[in-house]
């Protein structure tokens, strides 16, 4: 404020230099006085607007810095950062169409964006990500698009052999091309010892399929005398689901990009108590700040799991 007042006073005090040089009249006319006052007022108004805008930007930068610190550093609260994030990568086709591009151009960005998200997530302390890449319903798309995606997934798994995270695939592999099945197996084998983030890619996956295959597996064990009906409970059922391959099978947070507000047959059992976050941002535009906004929303919520914490 001191800077502002000094600047205001400078504009209001008449210049002595102008009178000495004969540039100003000792008895200005009312018209000149009015124009001079109006000019000073405009200068002050513009200067005030600029100063207030600069202050607003400085405050915004401070708030952004505080927000970043809140997301990354809170050792007192172990639940502050979700351990497992489920991700529905929606909006690739719309992103491409909005730019007059073939839909394949939107899909091509999946590998790059997931590498970026994995890098950020590792730094934040997220330990598992399950990304929905291809559902059991996606076979209804054109053969051209499906064939492109199958080839893209091969390139994806080959690339993620070298990223440094553990990679697993969940879903019915039997319907995938043999070359893709072999690529998945090789990637899982090469990355199984990697510590830190565990990335699960859901390919030909559906929540209905997952629960049905778990039910059939349990029923077969009961039929063969390996289990008794009394043995079946939630824990046993979860050990038969596709997410049994990870330490944290139940996502804390589901993020869906692209603006739709549904879970689309994804992890139906596992998402029972997950926090849901929907954003209009299309997946190719979903980056670091968008991920942190989702996590900030998670941090502001009170997870009660049917009880209460207040």
Automatic annotation (TrEMBL):
GO terms for biological process: plastid membrane organization; polyprenol biosynthetic process; response to cold. Gene3D superfamilies: Decaprenyl diphosphate synthase-like (3.40.1180.10). Pfam families: Prenyltransf (PF01255). It comes from the Eukaryota. It is found in: Plastid, Chloroplast. Coiled coil: none annotated. Its EC number is 2.5.1.-. PROSITE patterns: UPP_SYNTHASE (PS01066). One of its GO terms (cellular component) is chloroplast stroma. It is an enzyme of class 2 (transferase). Keywords: Transferase, Transit peptide. Signal peptide: none annotated. GO terms for molecular function: ditrans,polycis-polyprenyl diphosphate synthase [(2E,6E)-farnesyl diphosphate specific] activity; magnesium ion binding. PANTHER family: DEHYDRODOLICHYL DIPHOSPHATE SYNTHASE FAMILY MEMBER, NERYLNERYL DIPHOSPHATE SYNTHASE CPT2, CHLOROPLASTIC. Belongs to the UPP synthase family. This is Alkyl transferase. It comes from Nicotiana attenuata (Coyote tobacco).
């Amino acid at each position: 404020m001191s800077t502002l007042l000094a600047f205001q006073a400078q504009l209001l005090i008449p210049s002595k230099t102008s009178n000495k040089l004969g540039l100003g009249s000792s008895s200005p006319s009312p018209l000149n006085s009015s124009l001079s006052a109006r000019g000073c007022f405009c200068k002050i108004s513009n200067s005030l607007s600029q100063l207030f805008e600069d202050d607003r930007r400085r405050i915004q930068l401070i708030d952004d810095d505080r927000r970043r610190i809140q997301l990354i550093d809170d050792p007192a609260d172990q639940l502050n950062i979700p351990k497992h994030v489920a991700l529905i990568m929606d909006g690739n086709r719309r992103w491409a169409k909005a730019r007059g591009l073939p839909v394949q151009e939107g899909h091509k960005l999946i590998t790059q964006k997931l590498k970026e998200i994995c890098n950020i997530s590792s730094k934040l302390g997220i330990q598992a990500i399950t990304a929905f890449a291809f559902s059991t319903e996606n076979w209804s798309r054109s053969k051209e698009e499906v064939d492109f995606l199958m080839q893209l997934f091969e390139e994806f798994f080959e690339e993620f052999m070298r990223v440094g995270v553990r990679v697993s695939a969940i879903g019915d592999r039997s319907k995938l091309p043999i070359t893709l099945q072999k690529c998945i197996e090789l990637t899982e084998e090469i990355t199984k010892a990697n510590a830190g983030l565990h990335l699960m890619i859901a390919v030909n996956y559906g929540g209905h399929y997952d629960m049905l295959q778990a039910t059939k597996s349990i029923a077969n064990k009961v039929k063969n005398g390996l289990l008794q009906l009394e043995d079946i409970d939630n824990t046993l059922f979860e050990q038969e689901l596709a997410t049994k391959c990870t330490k944290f099978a139940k996502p804390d947070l589901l993020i869906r990009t692209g603006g739709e507000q549904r879970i689309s047959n994804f992890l139906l059992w596992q998402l029972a108590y997950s926090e849901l976050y929907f954003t209009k941002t299309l997946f190719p535009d979903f980056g670091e700040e968008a991920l942190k906004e989702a996590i900030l929303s998670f941090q502001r919520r009170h997870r009660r799991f049917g009880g209460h914490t207040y």
